[in-house]
Amino acid sequence: MTTQNESVGVRYLVDDVRSAIEFYTGRLGFTLHTNAGPAFADVTRGSLRLLLSGPASSGARATPAESADPGRNRIHLVVDDLDDEIGRLRDADVPFRSEVVSGPGGRQILITDPAGNLVELFQPASAA
C-alpha cells in the first residue's frame, strides 16, 4: 500500500511517449523522472507519478484491447487561477474537451493529452 508520504502512480497509455513527455512537462509543469525511450517514461508533479506507457511497454501489452480506450478516467490537477491556465493552454493549442463547469466546490475544465487521455484542471472555490 502507498503511504501518505509516498507518491501515487497513475498509468496512462499513450501513442507517442515523446509527445506525452513534451505535453506534461512543457504544458502542465511536470518534471521528467525516467525516460526509457519510445516504450516508457514517467513524470512527476507533487506526489503524483504519471506513468506514460507507449505501445511497446509491458503496461500497455497487459491491458486488454477493450479496456485500453483513453478517457475513461482522468487525473485531477489543482490550479491557482483557472482562467489564466485556460488562456495559456489555448494559446498553446491544447485541445479542450469541455467548457468550464462551476459547482459548490469550485470550477473545472477538461483537456486532453496527445493520446486523448483526460486531464481535469480544477480551481477550488476557496481560490476563486
Number of self-contained structural domains: 1
Rg, Å, rounded: 15 Å
CATH architecture grouping: Roll
Number of helices: 3
Alpha-carbon distance between the two ends: 34 Å
- Structure summary, number of beta strands: 8
CATH class: Alpha Beta
CATH third-tier fold name: 2,3-Dihydroxybiphenyl 1,2-Dioxygenase, domain 1
Structural class: alpha/beta
| Order of the strands making up the biggest sheet | 1-4-3-2
Q: In CATH, what is the homologous superfamily?
A: 2,3-Dihydroxybiphenyl 1,2-Dioxygenase, domain 1
Helix proportion of residues, in percent?
A: 10-25%
Beta content comes to 35-45%
Q: Any idea what the shape is?
A: globular
H-E order: EHEEEHEHEEE
Q: Which ranges are low-confidence, i.e. pLDDT below 50, for 5 or more consecutive residues?
A: none
Plain-language structure description:
- With 128 residues, this protein is of the alpha/beta class.
- The chain has a single domain, classed as 2,3-Dihydroxybiphenyl 1,2-Dioxygenase, domain 1 (Roll).
- 20% of the residues lie in helices and 35% in strands.
- The chain has a four-stranded mixed β-sheet with strand order 1-4-3-2.
- A hairpin with a 2-residue loop joins strand 6 and strand 7.
- The longest helix is centred in the N-terminal third of the chain and has 12 residues, at 17-28.
- The radius of gyration is 15 Å and the shape is globular.
Features:
alpha/beta; 2,3-Dihydroxybiphenyl 1,2-Dioxygenase, domain 1; Glyas_Bleomycin-R_OHBP_Dase; 4-stranded mixed β-sheet; 3 helices; 128 residues
